[in-house]
Amino acid sequence: MTGDARMTARAHVVGGGLAGLAAALALAEAGRPVTVYESGPACGGRCRSYFDRELGCRIDNGNHLLLSGNRAAMDFLTRVGARGTLGGPSRPLFPFIDRRSGRRWTLRPNAGRLPWWVFVPGRGVPGATLGDYAGLLRLRHADALGTVGGVLPHNALYERLVEPLAVSALNTPAELGSARLMWAVIAETLMQGGARCVPCFPKEGLSESFIDPAVARIRALGGVVRTGHRVSALRLQDGRVAGLAGPEPVDVAAGESVVLALPAAVAAGLLPGLTVPDEHEAIVNLHFRTDAASSEAGPLEAGFVAVVGGTAEWVFTKQGVVSVTISAANRLADRDGAQLAAAAWADVCAALGFVAAMPQYRLIREKRATFAATPAQHQRRPSATTATSNLVLAGDWTDTGLPATIEGAIRSGFAAARQAGRPAPHR
Ligand SMILES: Cc1cc2nc3c(=O)[nH]c(=O)nc-3n(C[C@H](O)[C@H](O)[C@H](O)COP(=O)(O)OP(=O)(O)OC[C@H]3O[C@@H](n4cnc5c(N)ncnc54)[C@H](O)[C@@H]3O)c2cc1C
């Protein structure tokens, strides 16, 4: 088949999370007929919003924080016409509170690449020296088995910035998290200057920013998005995918390609012999229904606070809802929900500077929120290409070089679309 013919053959995208939608978007933009098969009632996977009847409002499955340096995510949002749906402060600004001492500080990196902010009192991490900041470069030279906690000295910078950053970016305790993955995050954000570190999050919800506009754009380009369609097996024939089993069988004709954009374990179940990360970390989110407003300047301007030394790690304030994120949460698997909520609510009150009885809340435990970003798990990540000629992989767990994030998922989808557009190798 010629490259031209391949560009008009249908692409079948299995999985309607961010990776699948990014792949489908790029393929549809390139003029390929595309069908997305999503097992859930709506697209979005681990990045979605829904109406919570008990709370009486729409909530996200979990707070998602991006940085302006997440270039694939920003590109995706621009391409689906949703760049303006992100909110957050207009400059790099990260308010922190240490629950043990009550101390507050706000990280304010300057916009340019020369990091003069580390010299200016009141802009950096309290107690951190220039040598501590320079020490971050050790991550860059870490070997494949290096962990963040093993490579970096445990100083004020570690406790007040690196640890909280590692837990949220890697969703893995800093002691266990891959130093190389941590460096990948820092190299693309902090090392590029404050202009790449402006925090952003959806003004309304994850689905309103990332999912609904993407589905609408794919459909506008002629793509088909089928929800409630679970692909249960791949029909393999002569080294290629010839069909998809599901509610109704789908034939995959010669020249057509398949992008498998599923959670790692599901992909491994469909494709015998595929090695994938097999250890996961949970994320707990608590959504409190409250109109109580913050009395603190930092959270008021940023829309969130990072908490050190508490139960909550990030507290986000939205219209009528205050939400708490606790990452690397396998350690809390046995913790009673009501106790967890009470501890998180105490952190919320301290972080936002108000006193109020705990309101109605929703606790969401995403048990397999991401793969555990340890060096050993990172080594299990496969590349997008497979031995099956017309099959490409996508997903935040594939070898993107980044931890499991929106940025990684979208990059993997774009990369899969490029691969699916290439002529099949001769067999
Ligand atoms: C609580 C939480 C908080 C997070 N916070 C952040 C954050 O702050 N910043 C950040 O950048 N990232 C964050 N992430 C990570 C981010 O959400 C993920 O990296 C991203 O959504 C993964 O997208 P994906 O497409 O790779 O996978 P998925 O979202 O898992 O998509 C896979 C899709 O395949 C579908 N599917 C499964 N089986 C089948 C089948 N047999 N047939 C058809 N379809 C099927 C699923 O329903 C799903 O829609 C967070 C994740 C969670 C869970």
Structure, described:
The protein contains 13 helices and 20 strands. The longest helix has 16 residues. The chain folds into 3 domains: 137 residues, 3-Layer(bba) Sandwich (FAD/NAD(P)-binding domain), CATH 3.50.50; 141 residues, Polyamine Oxidase, Chain A, domain 2, CATH 3.90.660; 87 residues, no CATH class. A hairpin with a 5-residue loop joins strand 16 and strand 17. The model has no long low-confidence stretch (mean pLDDT 95). The strands form 5 sheets. It has a 7-stranded mixed beta sheet with strand order 8-7-16-17-18-15-19, sandwiched between helices. Strands 10-2-1-14-20 form a 5-stranded parallel beta sheet. The protein has 427 residues and is an alpha/beta fold. The two termini are 13 Å apart. The site of flavin-adenine dinucleotide (FAD) has 37 residues, from helix 2, strand 15, strand 19 and helix 13.
